[in-house]
């Protein structure tokens, strides 16, 4: 159950963004006014949410508001004022970004641009599933973001960051395509996974097949990747499809991380994707230790505890923000 204070913060953030994106009807504005009057904690949470949103520059939405004075905390004497109405697409983008803010996504540098473009996203440590307008489902891994092309008649998704599993609703007249980095993956069936890792993009097919086209230094190349196979593309080109252990590779979709004889360094790197703090190996030889095991993806601290006891490691936790692992 969501703690009351966290629920109030979520409600406050939702009110702020809906207000700034002009998504409130007159009756909803009165509801906001009543909500603010109901409890001083509501007004305080609203002030914090507006300060946070303002500190972010209210990306793109507040470009139209930049010349306006900052909105003060509504007083008991007057209901909240309405913001200048931004274009519809900007309002939709603002709501998506707001969701990322409420979920606790860190917005810095290039990440800010990614989250501003996103239609849906997940913070570190969360996996969630969304349903698209055509009935297709997208499962977003930890710290991931997608942008949905809203052009009528098209089914095109951009994977901006992280990893996503796609279960595609049948519609032969409208191909379902996922763009990531310098390549595209088009469904010729129903289920596949795409992961962006720097300049590298991995494709795993869990059902039927996909058509992959990649642009690289040597020019475009393409492959059909079938069920139980994976392929990778990047600046150097597109690899040939090769068989993989689908159960292990797709385990995160079941909230598991499965490792079979993997170096500890790789295991820690994967666990770090689900941890808000830092996990560091200290000392020589640790990275090459071999690990086999199955862990809950969204509980990396429990995984570290298991490794500590099963591998006779020494773990120092300077709160969960920094975990040091020694032999």
UniProtKB/TrEMBL annotation:
InterPro entries: FecR, FecR_N, Ferrdict_sens_TM
Annotated FecR protein domain residues: 122-210
Domain FecR N-terminal: 10-50
Molecular function terms from GO: sigma factor antagonist activity
Superkingdom, natural source: Bacteria
Name listed for the protein in its UniProt record: FecR family protein
Protein's organism: Gluconacetobacter liquefaciens (Acetobacter liquefaciens)
The organism's taxonomic lineage, starting at the top: Bacteria, Pseudomonadati, Pseudomonadota, Alphaproteobacteria, Acetobacterales
């Amino acid at each position: 159950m969501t703690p009351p204070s966290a629920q109030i913060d979520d409600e406050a953030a939702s009110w702020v963004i809906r207000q700034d994106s002009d998504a409130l009807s007159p009756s909803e504005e009165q509801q906001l006014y009543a909500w603010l009057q109901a409890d001083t904690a509501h007004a305080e949470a609203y002030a914090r949410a507006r300060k946070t949103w303002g500190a972010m520059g209210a990306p793109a939405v507040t470009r139209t508001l930049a010349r306006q004075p900052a909105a003060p905390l509504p007083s008991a004497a007057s209901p909240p004022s309405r913001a200048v109405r931004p274009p519809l697409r900007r309002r939709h983008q603002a709501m998506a970004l707001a969701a990322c803010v409420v979920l606790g996504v860190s917005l810095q540098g290039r990440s800010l641009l990614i989250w501003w473009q996103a239609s849906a996203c997940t913070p570190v440590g969360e996996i969630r599933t969304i349903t698209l307008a055509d009935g297709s489902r997208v499962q977003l891994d930890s710290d991931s973001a997608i942008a949905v092309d809203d052009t009528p008649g098209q089914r095109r998704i951009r994977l901006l960051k992280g990893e996503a599993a796609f279960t595609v609703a049948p519609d032969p007249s409208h191909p379902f395509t996922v763009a990531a980095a310098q390549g595209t993956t088009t469904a010729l069936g129903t289920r596949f996974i795409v992961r962006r890792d720097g300049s590298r993009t991995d494709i795993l097919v869990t059902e039927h097949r996909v058509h992959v086209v990649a642009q690289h230094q040597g020019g475009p190349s393409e492959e059909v990747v079938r069920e139980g196979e994976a392929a990778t593309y990047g600046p150097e080109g597109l690899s040939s499809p090769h068989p993989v252990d689908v159960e292990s590779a797709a385990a995160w979709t079941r909230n598991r991380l499965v490792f079979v004889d993997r170096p500890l360094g790789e295991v820690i790197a994967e666990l770090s994707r689900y941890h808000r703090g830092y996990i560091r190996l200290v000392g020589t030889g640790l990275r090459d230790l071999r690990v086999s095991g199955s862990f809950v993806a969204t509980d990396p601290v429990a995984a570290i505890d298991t490794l500590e006891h099963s591998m006779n490691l020494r773990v120092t936790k300077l709160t969960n923000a920094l975990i040091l692992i020694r032999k």
